[in-house]
Amino acid sequence: MGINERIKSAAAFEQALKVIPGGVNSPVRALKSVGTTPLFVKEAKGAYFTDIDDNRFIDFCMSWGVFILGHNNERVSQSAIDAVSRGSSYGIPTLAETTLAEKVREAIPSMERLRFVNSGTEATMSAIRVARGYTGRNILVKFEGNYHGHADHLLVSAGSGVATITNASSAGVPDGFVKYTVVLPYNDVDALRSYFNEHGDEVAALILEPVACNMGVVTPTEEFLKATREVTSQHGTVLIFDEVITGFRLSRGGAQQRFGITPDMTTVGKIVGGGFPAAAFGGRADIMKVLAPDGPVYQAGTLSGNPVAMAAGIETLSQLSRPGFYEELEQRSDRFIAQLEKIIEGKGITLNRCGSMFTLFFNDGPVRNFQDTKRSDQERFARYFRNMLQRGIYVSPSQFEGNFISETHTPEILDYVLQSISESID
């Protein structure tokens, strides 16, 4: 694939810098950490997007995992167009909200009651508030490198774009906002049990990514995931699975179905809106009963349950219910990963994978937690990213993020990507 010089994107970035801080509306899009400037997208279809310089790229970011059906799926797009033709927002209930809620609960039975919001940040923030209201406790336990959105009390040892901030938090967050947030190392069963043995009865909620996706893809050990369920059950703590990325990605029922662990509450996003801003939080009916208007925990949003996002979500989840969908995606991913393992052998690179998500860590050793991730060679990754870009492939632009295979990444596309990875690494 020949790549044109990105003259129009460069000019667009200069213009954006005059009105948008950093020229982007989410920091990682600036591509500073990989030593280049942003691409500005014109359109996308299937496994590809096209920038304003008419360069066509194979996309492995897929809007951070959203497009498991590929960009601009015809039936999903038509559902959204039909919804817009009836009105884009009402601030009044619609039947579509109940329909999508029922589809989510069917796929993830632990979400006995759920409420829609507009982003993963809103979902996790609201779930934690509900857990605190239900238990009457204050302390929240999270894990290093797990990113749960940009709410003040969650920006502590977080992954994603904030992973590169040296104080592992953010300016503008007062110490008092995080004094009830306790951070433990991911995949460390001893640290988890030790803290709960001493303070478990004070903990309102334990929140985690059941597969960490914001420090690169880092899978949990079976012992660790079981321990999160055991200690929370013993101490009356609400166990929250943040499945904003893994929900409907690792299986129809998310990571909890894949690993056979049932949390008390779950947050989902990305895929649930079919490419539109939507997320949800939910859980056991007795916990969710504390939410207004039934209970004393307040949460609201004018655009929550937006009819356009609901329509796209309904169509997306309907397609994901097709028999064999996840088995086919897993088999395609298995073939790709098996060949990728051969390519990187002896190259000082670690491959982590779960289902259709994967990360190449430029790190010669196992990656099991945030400290392992941070030992990766950022400059080497940046060169790899730029090499792939020149070959017409857009991988997720951070060593701390995952890559996503969709239904539209055909074997032919994946074969070209494998060849390009081999050339880029060499």
What does this structure look like?
The chain contains 14 helices and 14 strands. The chain is α/β, with parallel strands linked by helices and 426 residues long. The protein is globular, with a radius of gyration of 21 Å.
Question: What's the short version?
Answer:
With 426 residues, the protein is α/β, with parallel strands linked by helices.
Strands ordered across the widest β-sheet:
4-10-9-8-7-5-6
Largest sheet: 7 strands, mixed
Proportion of beta-strand residues: 5-15%
Shape: globular
Overall pLDDT metric: 94
Query: Could you tell me the radius of gyration in angstroms?
Result: 21 Å
Helical coverage, percent range: 25-40%
Distance between the termini: 18 Å
Which regions are unreliable across 5 or more consecutive residues at pLDDT < 50?
A: 159-168
Q: How many β-strands, per DSSP?
A: 14
Run of helices and strands: HEEEHHHEHEEHEHEHEEHHHEEHHEEH
Helix count, per DSSP? 14
Find the structural class using helix and strand composition.
alpha/beta
Key attributes of the depicted protein:
single chain, 426 residues, alpha/beta, seven-stranded mixed β-sheet, four-stranded mixed β-sheet, 14 helices, globular
Helix-strand blueprint:
Elements: H1 7-17, E1 41-45, E2 48-51, E3 56-59, H2 62-65, H3 74-86, H4 95-107, E4 113-117, H5 120-135, E5 139-143, E6 181-184, H6 189-199, E7 203-208, H7 222-235, E8 238-243, H8 254-259, E9 265-268, E10 279-283, H9 285-288, H10 307-320, H11 325-344, E11 350-354, E12 357-361, H12 370-374, H13 378-390, E13 393-394, E14 403-404, H14 411-425
Parallel strand pairs: 3-13, 5-6, 5-7, 7-8, 8-9
Antiparallel strand pairs: 1-2, 2-3, 4-10, 9-10, 11-12, 12-14
Helix pairs in contact: 3-10, 4-10, 6-7, 11-14, 13-14
